[in-house]
Amino acid sequence: MDYRFFRSLKIWGLIRFALSVFVIFLGTLGTAGAEDLFMYCGAGLRQPIDELLEAYKQQTGINVAVEFGGAGQMLTRYKATGKGDLFLPGSHFYVEQLKKNNQVIFSKQVVLHTPVFAVNKKMGNQIKTFDDLAVPGVRVGLGDPKAMALGRTAEDILINSGIKDAILKNTIVRAATVKQLTLYVVKGDVDAAIIARADAFQNKESLTYFDIDPTWYTPEIVTVAALKTASDPAAARKLAEYLGSFYAVEIFGRYGFLPAP
């Protein structure tokens, strides 16, 4: 009996088995990430969104890549690339812009993005009312109305306050995101700024914040949209529904956001 023959058959069988495993491995690589989604998200929503998306990944296995930034900047980027699965800005205004261009397949309101004026701790004895932002020498920070949702709201607040010109004379910086603007207050680069209630709440150990007359503005509504350009529209809509769920609103509430009507 020629044992070399049987040995060769055994070796060939091992080779075939190894090849089949390798092919399966390649197939796995080919499908890995096939269910992943890409979302544009307002910078001021980062903390609750990070928590929500981690929970979503644990539940579904779907990883969501996120680009955080000012809503206006992201809208411009989306229009330029024509790519993306979801859009979650700090204002319903930007979702409406997408709807006008027939780019939304589903949307849902989530929470309110309400403004406050925040004051650096060292200026607590000098700035106690909104009128104090107009006192000569006070360094004020505002959001860029073309770049971020709260920048648009701040413009309405200044107009209705009746002291817009005086506050603008004190304005030394315009920020592209609410996170950046909040950091300016915390670090003392500005004495005060109009920021989101949620960001002030999350940094209450480092700053003092005050409510703004609610008749001066209309609260921005954080709204999630599943986009027409989604690679998997059903998966995009499912995530949008999750981000607008009662569970998601509860998570947002832990970070200082108020529920939408």
What does this structure look like?
This protein is α/β, with parallel strands linked by helices. The protein has 2 domains: 37-112 and 221-259, D-Maltodextrin-Binding Protein, domain 2 (3-Layer(aba) Sandwich), CATH 3.40.190; 115-216, Periplasmic binding protein-like II (D-Maltodextrin-Binding Protein, domain 2, 3-Layer(aba) Sandwich). It is 46% helix and 23% strand. It contains 10 helices and 11 strands. The strands form 2 sheets. The protein has a 6-stranded mixed beta sheet with strand order 2-1-3-10-4-11, with helices on both faces. A 5-stranded mixed beta sheet has the order 7-6-8-5-9. Helix 2 crosses helix 10 (246-254). It is elongated and about 55 Å long. 40% of the residues are buried. Residues 1-34 have low confidence and may be disordered.
Task: Set out the fold topology.
Blueprint (H helix, E strand, L loop, with lengths): L2 H29 L5 E6 L3 H15 L3 E6 L1 H11 L4 E3 L3 H9 L3 E10 L1 E6 L19 E4 L5 H13 L2 H7 E5 L2 H10 L4 E5 H6 L4 E5 L8 E8 L5 H11 L2 H9 L3 E2 L2
Helix pairs in contact: 2-10
Order of helices and strands: HEHEHEHEEEHHEHEHEEHHE
Give the oligomer, counting copies of the same chain as homo and different chains as hetero. single chain
What is the count of structural domains?
Answer: 2
Amino- and carboxy-terminal Cα gap: 86 Å
Supply Rg.
25 Å
How many distinct helices? 10
The class by helix and strand makeup works out as alpha/beta
CATH architecture of the largest domain: 3-Layer(aba) Sandwich
Task: Report the helical percentage.
Answer: 40-55%
- Main beta-sheet strand count, sense and barrel state: 6 strands, mixed
Strand content: 15-25%
Cα shape: elongated
